[in-house]
Amino acid sequence: MRTLSTIMIGRYYPGESPLHQADPRLKIVLLFVLMTSLFAISSHLALLAMLALILLALTISRVPFKWVIRGLRPVSYIILFTLIVHFFFTPGEAMARLGPLTISEAGFNSGLILSARFILLIVSAFILTFTTSPIELTDGLESLFSFLKGLKVPVHELAMMMTIAIRFIPTLIIETERIMKAQVSRGADFQSGGFVKRLKNLISLLVPLFIGVFKQADELAMAMEARCYRGGEGRTRMKPMRMKQSDWFFGLALIILLGLITMLGRS
Predict the structure, then answer these.
(1) What's the pTM value of the predicted model, to 2 decimals?
(2) Per-residue pLDDT at 230 exceeds 50
(3) Strand 101-104 to strand 94-98: parallel, antiparallel, or no bridges (unpaired)?
(4) Average pLDDT over residues 111-116
């Protein structure tokens, strides 16, 4: 049975790298700028430049490269499916033939570009979550969207819900794997049989999983209430966020570099 604990979504890697110490608001803004640039470029040279930039950021973060590889494994089938669909079903001049199927040159280029965008986008999001703790992520999102408070939008509560959801993804995955192993030891079979049989076997997994999820949610709510949590109104921070001079320099330099790559990729 394939282990689920290797899924890296929402995990934080503690460290003292420059990216760990950078302001979370800066990292969130730079991620959105990078995402915009990825969807704006359409040349292989610009994608290679973006790949070099992301690899440099990953090296600076000192996050183990194997974490990124593990994180990409669950989406490898989606990437492969995207490549196959574009290779064989995009009309254009024939580049190669595999029996009755034809790989067009336009399909080959579009498949590579779209798959590269997808991979770079996921790795960029991983770098953000690997180098930013859940508390920093919550504070950063709340600060960036604080202008919505004038419209009576509960920014603090929404930011906290998003962060808790991301943070508990690894916990739920580990809990799912624990329940699956316990049910397999009792004779449950999640691998063989038809669709209906597998669906019935999943009931023995989903019921205890949902019970565990609601129990964890209740314990979290009780812990927050015991610490007198009453929402974001009037709350202060033990460590106020302040943009350092190095953050401004790093952010401005990276935005200029992303702008140059985007212009290169669109020309």
Answers:
(1) 0.74
(2) yes
(3) antiparallel
(4) 85
Q: Which of 14-18, 106-110, 191-195 has the lowest mean pLDDT?
A: 191-195
**Which residues, 6+ apart, have CB-to-CB distance to 44 below 8 Å?**
109, 112, 113
pLDDT cut 90: percent of the chain above it:
13
145 touches 155 (CB < 8 A) = yes
d(CA 41, CA 57): 20
> What sign results for the dihedral spanned by CA atoms 5, 11, 15, 17?
positive
Enumerate the β-bridge partners of residue 102.
Answer: 97
Pair 140, 241: CB distance under 8 Å:
yes
Q: Count the Cβ atoms, other than its own, within 10 Å of residue 129.
A: 22
Report the C-alpha gap between 196 and 167 in whole angstroms.
33
**What distances in angstroms separate CA 114 from CA 76, 189, 207, one per listed residue?**
13, 37, 38
Q: Which residue has the higher pLDDT, 115 or 95?
A: 115
Written as one letter, the residue type at 103 is: I
Q: How far apart are the first and last CA of the chain?
A: 48
Tokens coding 262: 């985007």
Query: For residues 152 and 221, what is the distance between their CA atoms, to the nearest angstrom?
Result: 23
